[in-house]
Amino acid sequence: MKEGSLEAPTRHPVAWRSEEFWDPQVLDTELERVFDICHGCRRCVSLCDAFPTLFDLVDESATLEVDGVDRADYPRVAEQCYLCDLCFMTKCPYVPPHEWAVDFPHLMLRAKAVRFRREGARARDRLLTSTDRVFSLASIPLVDITVNATNRNATARRGLESALGIHREAPLPAFHRRTLRKRAGNAADIAPHPVGETTGKLALYATCYGNYNSPDIGEDFLAVFRHNGVAIELVPRERCCGMPKLELGDLDSVDRLKRANIPVLAELVDRGYDLTAPIPSCVLMYKQELPLMYPDDEAVRKVQAAFYDPFEYLWLRHKGGAMNTEFTTALGSVAYQAACHQRVQNIGPRTRDVLGLVPGTEVTVQERCSGHDGTYAVKRETRDKSVKIARPVVRKVDQQAPDHFASDCPMAATHIAHLAQSVDRGEHPMTLLRMAYGLPPAGE
Length: 444
Description:
Layout: H1 24-41, H2 50-59, H3 74-79, H4 86-91, H5 104-119, H6 123-128, H7 131-138, H8 143-152, H9 154-164, H10 180-183, E1 201-204, H11 207-213, H12 215-227, E2 231-234, H13 243-248, H14 251-270, E3 274-276, H15 280-293, H16 298-306, E4 307-308, H17 310-319, E5 332-337, H18 340-343, H19 350-355, E6 361-366, H20 383-400, E7 404-407, H21 410-419, H22 429-436
Parallel strand pairs: 1-2, 1-3, 3-4, 5-6, 5-7
Helix pairs in contact: 1-5, 7-11, 11-12, 12-22, 14-16, 15-16, 20-21
Protein name: Fe-S oxidoreductase
Pfam family, one: CCG
Keywords: 4Fe-4S, Iron, Iron-sulfur, Metal-binding, Repeat
């Protein structure tokens, strides 16, 4: 076994427009090569279930090596990968520029894409990843009441599990007829104040989840950033970022969403706006995944350079002396789960750093995956695995019994709080920051 590289990892573009990318035989050859490297290393066994699945296939084969695994079983490994990226960013010693150039998540993406183009996907999976259509319909007045009541009804949930394979015990998001776009109102009259690389003029990409499922969090964003003298307003129009379709392997849908979103966002950048979003996966989509799919697209690169994690942005403002640190309310003990798609942005623990500025606040960080992924934790066949992945975080939260539990990913926060005994809900760190400032809660 060769020694791993000590150089900073680099990412190669996703060559999804090449014929070779879609060739099943070429793909299987590359899968066998990478699986053999993973089998000889096994450092990532404690992450998602993709690695235990692979190693079980090897250990149960006639040769006890990858060459004994039936290639028809390779998709079983890809099915368990939800592109959290932690293996690439935190575990694997053979990522580029190492000569073996292992990029396990993007190889799994390729496997998903080839299979999707050949076989399609279940109606349930197409439904769960069609967030624009489903969320907008579920938020229609009266329809929202029916959907929310159905999601809380045990009998209805058993029927939903039987019909669509959505696990009866998985918490499902609520839908709001008063979406963030209906609540936001006009932009505040704040003169932009540039600090460092930030312009002080910020456009909030609300995202499907932020607009329809958690509009209160969007209101928290508007209140906190305006309290810090940042001229923030909503992106004028948007579609889903494409992450759910990416994880499904539906790259043609990702392309359609990119063509709808990038021109709008690039125009905002041209007008002097920085960009942010309340969901780490959406931030990562514009910071990493789309730039790797479209490495030569100038507009994509422009959007990438202007997109910030919200707490990364606040921390940059703080370093420039422009963050309001006049807090009125201590938060006490905070258990904070660092979302995977925020960790792999390589910006440091900025949420912890910002919350740590609040006097009388102690933030304990849990750097383990929640196992949610948006759909993985709600599907009948993977719900138990997601619970197993989340268990170390749940155990730590229960041991701490904090005053608040938070995650930058609202879905991860809800998932962990649902499993934990010591907390009854998960909160977004921006909600906690609003509380620390003594600002009225969202909706008041």
